[in-house]
Amino acid sequence: MPAITLRLFTDPDAAATADLFYRAIHEGTRDHYTTEQRRAWAPQRPETARWRERLNSQYAVIAEIGPDLAGFMTLDENGYIDLAFVEPAHTGQGIGSALLNAITTEASRRGMHRLKTHASLAARPFFERHGWTIVKQQTITRDCVDLTNYVMGMTVP
Question: How far is CA 131 from CA 19, 61, 64, 86, 128, in A?
Fold first, then answer.
């Protein structure tokens, strides 16, 4: 398993995390969502300045393998994991687990008792392996295209 380094998001990470987000959806969820669904979910790479604002408004953790961005995860002030993405070439290497551990540690430090996320079909098994439970399955519509995801939660240890 490669050495994973975790650190907090900084402004220069905005472009690389936006690229990773786009690739993770279009490449990493290929087995779970159709091309039409992936295009509706992420029609284009997020605009860097707006993306930077989004990540700066949350607790955002970056995972690196060597000098390369390998993944990132965010936690908002209400205990919601808004973004959780791993570089498609690095899935299954412990990156998501390391990021989730950092997020739950921070949630505990902040006195949060429960975390919530909207997990994709691809992310659901990952969260279940880490003790998360499904609250409900839901269908969201983006650009007239239906996408299934799961509202999931966990109690912070």
Answer: 29, 20, 25, 19, 5
Range of the domain at 77: 5-112
Total structural domains in the chain?
1
Q: What is the pLDDT of residues 128-142, one digit of tens each?
A: 999 999 999 999 999
Radius of gyration of the chain (CA): 15
CATH code at 53?
Answer: 3.40.630.30
What are the φ and ψ backbone dihedral angles of 153, each rounded to 5 degrees? Answer: -145, 165
Cα–Cα distance for residue pair 46/21, rounded to 1 Å: 8
- Closest by CA to 23, choosing from 9, 7, 42, 50, is 42
Whole-model pTM over 0.90: yes
